[in-house]
Amino acid sequence: MLLGADDESWLPPDVGGTVATVGSFDGVHRGHQDVLARLSARAREVGLRSLLVTFEPHPLEIVNPDVAPHLLTPGREKLAALAESGVDYVAVVPFTRTLASYEASQFVDLVLRDRLRMRELFIGHDHGFGRGRAGDVHVLQQLGAARGFRVEVVEPIAADGHAVSSTAIRRAVAGGDLHRAEVGLGRPYGATGTVVQGEQRGRLLGYPTLNVALPSPRKLLPPEGVYAVRVHTVGGSYGGMLNLGPRPTFGDATRSLEAHLFDAEGDWYGQTVGVDFVARLRDTRRFDGVDALVAQLGRDAQHARRVLARPAADAR
């Protein structure tokens, strides 16, 4: 559920109490998934509802916008990923300067206990909330002892010998390491957007494309280039190839996402589609004329089909 600033009741009246966790949960990666699985299991065990409390926008966009990261799962991408988690409720709390000024005890009392009926709290070992992130594990355990709620600390998980974190996955995506990003996320890195009208150059070249407009400028994208992708539409999922970046052969410097779907026909204008980045094929570059570009697109298509035909672990 999305919570407005003026809402008086944040949970249905029949919810007697919750087992809660709090955080940005950007990416909903394997570490987050572990926390949420433990949270849900505990809630079932004690007969309470499981609850995730997160924020919009990302807290750093308010408290220190100069260092606020681009996001793995902005807006509804995060909600879509959380839909698979099995958590009973997701509370999206508007993050404001007022909320940023709350001490940890205020956040616990006014938000978690009063509004969200928190009875138990799950937190990561390095978690902190409240003003200056002062509400660390030690402080929260003290608050729990004083106010009568249980605090469980969840240790991080590792993948390929590395601790899984949103920061590490952002670094992998920004550097084009799609394999490491997928290992951390537990799924391919992707983007969701709406199909919009383009210049229709691809159709004239024999490679019609979907022009995908992203809903948020905060979305983190991998480096510009040509990618093998899987595109998920309301009519099914298709392999394809995608150009991320400008179209220098046509003198077009606009950064865009254009995906050509293999073995698919249809009108997807206005529809929301998901794009999974499977492998980077090459740099975006300028060609000496349309014929050279079309020849390269043919090679790209063959390369992308080969990559997509491989087992997932080898598609890199």
TrEMBL record:
UniProt domain Riboflavin kinase: residue ranges: 184-309
The keyword Ion transport is assigned to this record: no
UniProt keyword list: ATP-binding, FAD, Flavoprotein, FMN, Kinase, Multifunctional enzyme, Nucleotide-binding, Nucleotidyltransferase, Transferase
UniProt-listed SUPFAM superfamilies: Nucleotidylyl transferase, Riboflavin kinase-like
InterPro entries: FAD_synthase, Riboflavin_kinase, Riboflavin_kinase_bac, Riboflavin_kinase_bac/euk, Riboflavin_kinase_dom_sf, Rossmann-like_a/b/a_fold
GO BP term (any one): riboflavin biosynthetic process
Pathway the protein acts in: Cofactor biosynthesis; FMN biosynthesis; FMN from riboflavin (ATP route): step 1/1; Cofactor biosynthesis; FAD biosynthesis; FAD from FMN: step 1/1
Pfam families recorded: FAD_syn, Flavokinase
EC number: 2.7.1.26, 2.7.7.2
Annotated catalysed reactions: riboflavin + ATP = FMN + ADP + H(+); FMN + ATP + H(+) = FAD + diphosphate
A GO term for molecular function: ATP binding
SMART domains: Flavokinase
Task of the protein: Catalyzes the phosphorylation of riboflavin to FMN followed by the adenylation of FMN to FAD.
Family affiliation: Belongs to the ribF family.
Identification of the protein by name: Riboflavin biosynthesis protein
Chain's gene name: ribF
